[in-house]
Design a protein that fits this description.
The structure is a single chain. Helices cover about 70% and strands about 0% of the residues. It is mainly α and about 425 residues long. Helix 5 packs across helix 6, helix 5 runs antiparallel to helix 11 and helix 8 crosses helix 13. The longest helix has about 35 residues. It is found in: Membrane. This is OLC1v1010501C1.
Amino acid sequence: MGFEKDEASSSSHVLNIPREETPLLSCDQHLSSPAKTFANVFIAIVGAGVLGLPYTFKKTGWVMGAIMLFSVAFFTYHCMMLLVKTRRRLESKKSSTKKLSSKISSFGDLGFAVCGPIGRFAVDVMIVLSQAGFCISYMIFIANTLAYIFNYSPTDPTPKILGISPKVVYIWSCFPFQLGLNAIPTLTHLAPLSIFADVVDLGAMGVVMVEDVLIFLKNRPALEAFGGFNVFFYGLGVAVYAFEGIGMVLPLEAEMKDKQKFGKILGISMAFISLMYGGFGVLGYFAFGEETKDIITTNLGFGLLSTLVQLGLCINLFFTFPLMMNPVYEVVERRFCEARYSLWLRWVIVLAVTLVALLVPNFADFLSLVGSSVCIILGFVLPALFHLIVYKEELGWPELTLDVAIIVFGLVLSVSGTWSSLLEIFAAKA
């Protein structure tokens, strides 16, 4: 599919778009080279979701899991490029007397340009839910990992700290520090911590994969290639979550120096991440088989290297939390505080995220829920819908059919996957 410049025509919603600032991507930045764009795409996509892939492969079977992972990667790339193409068309359109008063700098801007206020509202809701969902999963990961490192005992399956579950203690221990971090009005100076988080992620993944190979060669556990159909939607939700980063695509494309190469760079980035994810998931499952846990690092035991890897991941997710919450604050403060900084509102949101994290028992189950419920809508349904609306008069039957199929299939998957994930969560809690 080509994404060259489109010719001008008219649109009803492309005038006077309210501008939305994007965290860490200020307008006075130098334009990015292909190498920097590759790195930025990697940072935007790779996160804690990868740690739940081996457990997902255990549930779906390693062949089925790999097929789902690469399929999700392909369609994620396709829908990302639909957003880019739609934005390029809208920015090239002109009415008979006026032009766009500002550029479409974010997913929310694009929603407003295509569907007016209702389009921006839909995108805002999805971004708030998905970003908050990511941060909830961070809290669960940190608490479960610390509980495993400091409180696990083979003789006591349900350890307590002063009569309280370790997970509850560690989540509430993080709460006052997160109030302080999330009170910072501007988070630009925390950007190096985001880079540090991804460096630690890569290092941790490398260590885990080497350990996986050694353990597999020693134990060679029984493996399953295909799971039942009942886990299809569960696995799909985790795969969608792992590739979620569509909210950053438009800002990254806008800051690239040679925009015509963005599609190629994005494709190379997605292919690299897919191979890395696939290798990590398969090797983790191959090493531990049916003993694979929802957070793969907890399978590595209590050695010094394993403990350092897990603590490093906890530290980087702890400092990534306020960065991931920043889009939530932008949306909420824009809608309720006229885009003014509101400390009490931020603290209420942090409290809400903390309370939800306390209620969710399983890290991978929650990844599946977030991926199924909002990430599918944000990553597949809305890009295809916006593309269909903007190009409806010039799409051929193949493109029209593909857009409609993505929308319908995405909605079906979202409903079915959400139901499947909720069943898993309540079954685990029971």
